[in-house]
Design brief:
The protein is an alpha/beta fold.
Length: 447
């Protein structure tokens, strides 16, 4: 390695305790995302709870329980924010120790660069160790990391040999000259998550979707059991030459590639490449993407750009929801005051796929859920709280009772279609609700 690069590296090397001293009261501190949480820096910053005041933290889907929130649930020193709630974020949110930042995922780099998001005073980013060219790789979360670094006053890296090198793409690295301080940490494996287990209802939903996928389709899979079930069915099918253009790289894509189902042969953008902006899954997945030239990680304003999604014919997106109402409004991030996840990129792909020639966007949900000891319908008269996807964008809705396409439908046709895939026990009440809303015709029929 060239001497000048090593000199810069040594001059910027700090202990973790020294590095967090550069955070001042009143600062906004941005962390890297998902499984790339800078754990050592977070712990060291939390230890300064008695020295600081009014420090704001921003992250997306912090998969590790963030210590600045855990140590300060009343927010006297740290105020923790997330643009997409993880399980631990939800726990902090219930305690009043975490706040949500609504965001369409593709907008995040633009928000930062145009000043619509708070300016990062300090960026704390987990990376690979430096390579021979003076580059640090952002690992499994490209997302909007480059934009954070560009806008930050101080950039602190937490390097770890356990971080896979995720090839791009673009904007997946930072050069030593753009780094202020470096903290080395012992090699640890990234947080692995188990493959989601598909329920019988998930498998029925997946079967309905599989009927709509053809050779050469370009896939986006969201988080959860249903996308995983779709992946399993594709693996057992005769489908071939599929492509991947997805915000998330999950185990299902790895499995489909290993079985020769994904080739990217018919993609228009990034032909033969598996395109994504973050990865989260098993240890096998992290090994698969490490230094793998078939995989291409990009920032989210590329992967989730409606124009880039649409350039690939037969784009297919598969995502989850928690409620759909009789108008076709989709709730995916919250029910009432109960915040679950975030806007994420669901809307990005619903819009982008609709512009793709032959594209289809599927929003999936089980028809019912248990609340306490009470079974309730997830097809509802009105969304309870927050609408994630407006009715004008809705495409296919799928439950274990069937799939319906809402594009081009009248209000009464939408209501009829949705009631037809609701649980039979709730259909009569939903018809009465539709009648009360004036979106039910006397001639409507439910099969």
């Amino acid at each position: 390695m060239r001497k000048s690069i090593w000199d810069q590296y040594r001059n910027k090397l700090k202990t973790v305790e020294e590095a967090v001293k550069f955070v001042d009261s009143g600062d906004w501190v941005y962390y890297s995302h998902f499984v790339m949480t800078p754990v050592a820096l977070d712990q060291a910053l939390a230890a300064r709870i008695d020295e600081l005041r009014d420090v704001k933290i921003s992250v997306s889907n912090g998969m590790h329980p963030v210590q600045v929130a855990a140590c300060d649930p009343e927010g006297k020193t740290f105020t923790y924010h997330s643009t997409f709630f993880s399980a631990s974020d939800r726990t902090f949110g219930k305690q009043g120790a975490a706040f949500f930042i609504p965001a369409n995922y593709h907008e995040q780099p633009w928000r930062l660069r145009q000043g619509f998001a708070p300016k990062p005073n300090v960026a704390m980013i987990k990376t690979t160790p430096m390579d021979k060219n003076g580059l640090f790789n952002f690992g499994t979360s490209c997302s909007y990391t480059k934009a954070i670094i560009e806008m930050a006053d101080i950039v602190i890296l937490e390097t770890n040999e356990g971080v896979p090198q995720c090839l791009g793409g673009h904007s997946e690295n930072i050069h030593i000259s753009d780094v202020d301080y470096i903290v080395e940490t012992p090699k640890t494996s990234l947080l692995a998550t188990a493959k989601p287990q598909a329920s019988p209802e998930d498998e029925k939903i997946a079967q309905f979707i599989l009927e709509e996928i053809h050779d050469g389709a370009c896939l986006q899979l969201g988080i959860g059991g249903i996308p995983n079930a779709v992946g399993s069915l594709i693996a057992e099918s005769d489908l071939k030459d599929l492509g991947m253009h997805s915000e998330m790289m999950c185990d299902a894509f790895m499995d489909l590639y290993d079985q020769g189902k994904i080739t990217g042969r018919y993609k228009y953008t990034n032909k033969n490449k598996m395109v994504y902006t973050f990865a989260m899954g098993t240890a096998d997945l992290y090994e698969f993407i490490n230094d793998n030239p078939v995989c291409a990680i990009f920032p989210v304003d590329y992967t989730n750009s409606a124009e880039n999604i649409a350039r690939n014919d037969n784009a297919i997106s598969i995502n989850n929801a928690v409620q759909v109402d009789l108008y076709g409004q989709i709730a995916s991030e919250a029910i009432g005051n109960k915040h679950i996840s975030g806007s994420g990129g669901q809307g990005d792909f619903v819009v982008g796929v609709a512009k793709s020639r032959g594209g289809k966007a599927f929003i999936c949900l089980k028809s019912t859920q248990m609340i306490g000891d009470r079974l309730v319908s997830r097809i509802v008269p009105d969304v309870e709280g927050i609408v994630s996807v407006p009715r004008a964008w809705a495409f296919y809705i799928v439950t274990e009772y069937g799939k319906v396409c809402l594009k081009g439908k009248t209000t009464w046709q939408i209501a009829e279609a949705l009631i037809s895939i609701a649980h039979p026990d709730f259909r009569d009440d939903l018809i009465k609700a539709a009648e009360a809303k004036g979106i039910w015709r006397r001639s409507n029929k439910i099969g």
